[in-house]
Amino acid sequence: MSEPSLTPHTDTVPATAAVAQHEHPVLIARLGPLFRLFYVNLIGTILTLGIYRFWAKTRMRRYVWSHVVVGGEGFEYTGTGKELLFGFLKALVVLAPPLVLLGITELLLDDPWSSIVRGAQYVALVLLFIAGSYAARRYRMSRTRWGGIRFHQSGSPWRYAGIYLKGGVLSALTLGLYAPYLRMQLTAYETSNLHFGSEPFGFSGTGRDLFKRWLIAWLLAVPTLMLSILRYRAAEYRYVAAHTRLANLQFATTVRGRNLFAYYLVNGLILVLSLGILFPILIRRRIGFWCRWMTLDGAIDLAAIRQVPIELRSGEGLANFLDMDFLGV
Length: 329
Hints:
The protein is an alpha+beta fold. Helix content is 57%, strand content 15%.
């Protein structure tokens, strides 16, 4: 499989201004090609005992990215299967020995020491999972371009995992009431470290603004069979979008709790009734759903934005090691 060069000096940036006035991202991917790509990838992965999955993921991302259009311009994914494979191998070499050692130590010890080691394993896996999700995000952003300009995610995966660990403990101690503060802290860290070329994203949201809504949803969760949580989650999405900016570009979403309920219900029915055969429909529905409910207002001058050189040479090691994935994408 041929893969594009990732040398940053060859990038070209168009000297134009992209204007969006209440514009929706558009998903133009068709189900026929998506089904073919998904099942060719699946067969290749099975026949190679899982080795092809790195190239399969790359092919799927290239197809999906290029079929999401904003301002008449599709996104571009420039990652390679080789980068994903090398990232996985690096994570395997670094992480497998200590995890195996912890497992052996647990078997050799009696309680309560074995329970302490087991707890340490769980905490380590959670931290690795969260750090891996952020590291994967950094890689994906560094390999995503729009209008010839590359996105860039800075920040430390371990700092991100530390925020999650501290917030998770506080959420547990408050029976979940600290959750909106944690989610906004994580969102703020993600967004404040995200750039479009040299232009930083901005986020001004706080958990305090959402606490009253969350308290009501939390109190009504059992009587409403968790529907109050869906309603809150939609409000949170609207809040996050309204407090996110890129230069003069403002994000917004009008999604409601009933939209989320219908989305999850239909997805569940498709998955169960088709026994997973129609999984590519879920990929398209996931992306199409947010394209439908997301709007952009404002303008961004591409000529004023400088390109950022690529720093990451291998990708998603932690994420692939822990088998994290996003609907095959």
